[in-house]
Write a structure and sequence with these properties.
Structural class of chain B: mainly alpha
Order of helices and strands of chain A: HHHHHHHHHHHHHEEH
Oligomer: heterodimer
Largest sheet of chain B: none
Distance between the termini of chain A: 72 Å
Number of domains of chain A: 2
Number of domains of chain B: 1
Distance between the termini of chain B: 25 Å
Strand content of chain A: under 5%
Shape of chain B: globular
Number of helices of chain A: 14
Helix content of chain B: over 70%
Largest sheet of chain A: 2 strands, antiparallel
């Protein structure tokens, strides 16, 4: 082997070893600095200062901050966190850097509004964010839909929601469902029916797989609540007729009150426990408020108390 | 071998010091620190934070600019002036030449940083009237800045071993910017799916990680820097620079200089 080849082999070996070593070290450094990039937001919390520092490249800076929002929310959500302290400031920075980043207003308000651990449980901040989004982007009907949604679902203010849907429906190319929603709100339609309309609209209009899945889970939970209410009525009829509580759903079928064993959206049969109708696997059906054992409250109600205790 | 490398290093250092651009940049760095002092006086309550942020950022930016603009010309200038042929006609190996050039520029940068740091600490002393034990973290930040220069110099040398000075500057500066957002790139890789995940993960581990070397914001807030981070960052900078220098030497070894 000539000298040049020997040197080349030695250098190639050094390259490989040092690159492998640097990758290993990098993983260790990342482990040590987990969340450090996000924590840095505390050092420069002013969106206006960051806007000046981005030297005009605000779009790119906003995209980076939006990625950080997703990362932060994802990590907290996965850890079932009860607090999302950095979510609001991160969204504030993102939307100040790029006030036309519609997704940040849409998804950001959802992340902020939902109760922990699904979100930050800060509906007022979510409404403030989406209202700012509307001020910056008055021709985007989706933002009116998000605001109306929050006003009804989180702030329980159907009158305000009706006004918002009405305003949104007047925007050119707005989804026609906004008019129906505005009318339904104004007529004080049933709570569950309105919720179903809202989640159906979300499911049909969103292009994001995560939001679509979330809407699907809510619609599924509404179906379970409806089923359980219906079955409880049948159980009451059975009790009136026979003077005793049924032991299982099969008895209701035998009594001619049901055509067959009803199944929940997961394909499991509903069951009767001490005269109450329950679902088979409550953990696989988030957001349900009916069909739970007596000592287990709805996921949201239970979490409300946890937050209060803190 | 060591004599030959140190001779090339010393010549590189001497040449860099003679370079007017170098002095101009140092002059601007001192100007920035002066501006920090002025700005510090009009920023209520955060004058020291402003001084630390602006001073250390100025040192970092000016050092990186020096590393890039001197680093990209280290090889091409020698070829252009035909001085390389005289050097290589002597018993000097090509890889020794690359290594000598690298140490020469790193030495220049260390000396420059030392003088800029003196000005910076004078500014801190002027505002705070005293230096506390917490200010040791400022030294750590300065040390990390020097590690940054080591990596940038190695990358500039790598590009200059096969590309034109202009393209080398563009490549090195781009890699510096990407490396500054390396942690964001890895976060993106973590949430991406499919082939994008693999591509982003590979890219995130190949580009130099400058984000972990930037502790300016945290030391400005008197946050201590973990000893283990100092050790890991030192080892990382050393390994990454070794990788880039070995690649530069390998390319230069096979480069046709006729």
């Amino acid at each position: 082997m000539n000298y040049r080849r020997q040197v080349a082999c030695a250098l190639a070996a050094v390259m490989l070893v040092s690159l492998a070593g640097s990758v290993i070290l990098l993983r260790e450094i990342d482990r040590m600095r987990e969340g450090a990039t996000l924590e840095e937001v505390l050092y420069i919390p002013s969106p206006k200062v960051l806007k000046a520092m981005s030297l005009g490249y605000t779009g790119l800076a906003a995209d980076i901050y939006w990625t950080r929002v997703i990362q932060y929310f994802g990590e907290k959500h996965r850890a079932k966190a009860q607090q999302y302290q950095l979510l609001a400031p991160l969204l504030d920075i993102t939307t100040t850097l790029d006030p036309h980043l519609i997704v940040a207003f849409q998804f950001g308000s959802t992340f902020l509004a939902q109760k922990p651990p699904e979100g930050a449980g800060q509906p007022e901040k979510a409404v403030a964010l989406i209202e700012r989004g509307i001020r910056e982007n008055p021709d985007t009907w989706q933002l009116y839909y998000e605001l109306g949604f929050l006003q009804y679902m989180e702030l329980h203010n159907p009158a305000a929601a009706a006004r918002t849907f009405e305003r949104g429906s007047k925007i050119p190319h707005a989804h026609p469902f906004l008019k129906i929603l505005a009318a339904a709100m104004a007529q004080h339609a049933g709570e569950r029916e309105l919720a179903r309309m809202l989640w159906t609209t979300t499911y049909e209009t969103t292009e994001d797989a995560m939001i679509k899945q979330n809407a699907f889970k809510h619609l599924r939970a509404l179906k379970v609540d409806d089923d359980v209410l219906h079955l409880e009525q049948i159980v009451d009829i059975f009790k009136t007729r026979t003077g005793r509580t049924p032991q299982n759903v099969a008895e209701l079928v035998q009594a001619g009150l049901l055509r067959g064993i009803p199944l929940d959206p997961l394909g499991h049969p509903y069951k009767i426990v001490d005269g109450r109708v329950e679902v088979e696997d409550r953990n696989a059906l988030p957001f349900i408020t009916k069909g739970l054992p007596p000592n287990v409250k709805s996921e949201f109600l239970q979490l409300d108390k946890t937050v209060e205790k803190q | 071998m060591l004599n030959r490398i140190s001779a090339i290093s010393f010549n590189t250092f001497r040449e860099a010091v003679r370079d007017r651009v170098l002095y101009n940049l140092v002059f601007f760095a001192i100007l920035m620190v002066g501006a920090a002092l002025l700005f510090g006086q009009i920023s209520v309550g955060i004058h020291l934070i402003v001084l630390v942020n602006l001073g250390l950022t100025a040192i970092s930016i000016f050092g990186v600019v020096i590393a890039i603009f001197i680093g990209i010309g280290l090889v091409s200038k020698e070829i252009e002036k035909r001085t390389l042929y005289t050097v290589l006609a002597r018993p000097v190996r090509r890889w020794e030449f690359i290594l000598g050039k690298f140490f020469g520029l790193v030495g220049t940068l260390v000396v420059n940083t030392f003088f800029m740091a003196l000005g910076f600490f004078a500014g801190v002393l002027y505002l705070a009237h005293t230096l506390s034990r917490q200010d040791v973290s400022l030294l750590v930040a300065l040390y990390f800045i020097v590690l940054q220069f080591v990596i940038v110099t190695a990358i500039a040398l790598l590009f200059s071993s096969f590309s034109s000075p202009l393209l080398s500057a563009v490549f090195t500066f781009s890699l510096f910017i990407i490396g500054t957002f390396a942690e964001d790139l890895r976060s993106f890789a973590a949430i991406a799916q499919g082939p994008a995940k693999w591509i982003a993960t590979a890219a995130a581990h190949l580009v130099p990680n400058f984000s972990a070397l930037n502790v300016i914001s945290s030391v400005a807030h008197h946050q201590p820097v973990a000893g283990s981070l100092i050790a890991y960052n030192s080892a990382y900078a050393l390994l990454y620079a070794t990788f880039a220098i070995a690649a530069a030497a390998l390319i230069f070894e096979y480069r046709d200089l006729k």
